[in-house]
Amino acid sequence: MAAPESDSVDPPSAAAAAPGVLLEVAGGRIASVRAGTEPPPGAERLPGLVLYGFANAHSHAFHRALRGRTGEYGGSFWSWRRLMYAAAERLTPDSYRELAAAVYAEMALAGVTCVGEFHYLHHAPGGRRYADPNAMGAALAAAAADAGIRITLLDTLYLSGGLGSDGRHTPPEGVQLRFADADLDAWADRAASFRPEGGHALAGAAAHSVRAVPADALAGFADLHRENGTGWPSPHIHLSEQPAENEACRAAYGRTPTAHLAEAGLFTGVHPVLVHATHLDPSDVRLLRERRADICLCPTTERDLADGLPPLAELGTDRVTLSLGSDGHSTIDMLAEARAAEMHERLRTGRRGTVPALMLLDALHENGHAGALGWHDAGWIGEGNRADLVVLDLDGARTAGFDPAQAAEAAVFAATGAEVRHVMADGRWIVRDRVHTAMPDAPARLDAAIRGLLG
Questions:
Q1: How many other CB atoms are found less than 10 A from the CB of residue 420?
Q2: In the annotation, is 327 catalytic?
Q3: Average of per-residue pLDDT across 317-332
Q4: Is 276 among the catalytic positions?
Q5: From CA 455, how far away is CA 450, in angstroms rounded?
Q6: Pairing state between β 21-26 and 29-35
Q7: The whole model's pTM is what?
Q8: Catalytic choice (276, 329, 344, 436)
Q9: How far apart, in Å, are the Cα atoms of 263 and each of 16, 215, 220, 246, 256?
Q10: Residue of 7, 327, 393, 426 marked active site
């Protein structure tokens, strides 16, 4: 069997690959990890580089329908959002399951074995509740099962339609009515009632942003997590994705979104996952360093929407913990996300090596599975952990010249999702020879789901 990188055997360690590692899998778990061992008769050899399965810590599954359809000339995040709202208006629980299952299959083909779904499309058009108020969330959990991956469903608090330059929260309107609950208590009751079926799914929570959650509700949201009666993993929240968000927050509250989260208690007895954290001022950076914040970067989406570049060097990768997501799915390639995090920082600072390759793999592995998504028995190749494996092909042009002593460098800076050959999740092969085992027609299903939604 080809070896995983050595940090997978006994993390943390060097970025080299160990040859001749024997992995035994039983009951969906890694039963043993032995290096330098002759394989027993009948053992399957995995030619290539074996890594732990990737965690995609931030997803909006229905955004995948917009890929290649939103135009490339002019516009901004806000003009893109109007097109996203048009797609959201048309989804039903059944069509969402069809679309999300195909999206999650695309993720599996790229090596993803667990996804964090930042879920805010809760209700029927007009804001009417479905007979099952969590029908849309249940559709997403079922879709993950269809694709054979795990999911942390981050049920998202969304109460206002925005935060204007006059510093006032506006009521939700149009498609936003599908996102919004009546108030914090109504959201909490609905979210707490969701019990996803199957051992592949965890229930979690998010607050959409300072734009969509007024201050009193944000403080109440923090209280819910501080009390820890929900059993949810770390909450997630979009933070400072756009300058307009910062300007509106200052107008409304006299402080930046980061300072506003602190005032609301989101850093007191709570350790949120901050998505994007793009437009930070020096005081924000100091606060996040002090709190040793968890930050989820989504570089291909941040680049696609012209959002900006987060200040990673100033934050300090020794002070914050990184995870990665594909967010709007302009690309689903977690190695591309990892590579872009460092490449963007090189462009921003003119320096190389702010985020080392091994740290970027950590963002896809333990930081994603355990830290961001609450799967504490996942994230590295070790005895007793969930058996998630990704086999990268080393025979292609992109990985030619592979040096086992620099395996992490090769994985992050040479390989792409196209090198993913086999994928195992919880001890089951869900991708074999680049074909999804449960959905061999995954591309056709994805195409049909998108055309059925948008024409």
A1: 25
A2: yes
A3: 96
A4: yes
A5: 7
A6: antiparallel
A7: 0.95
A8: 276
A9: 44, 9, 12, 15, 10
A10: 327
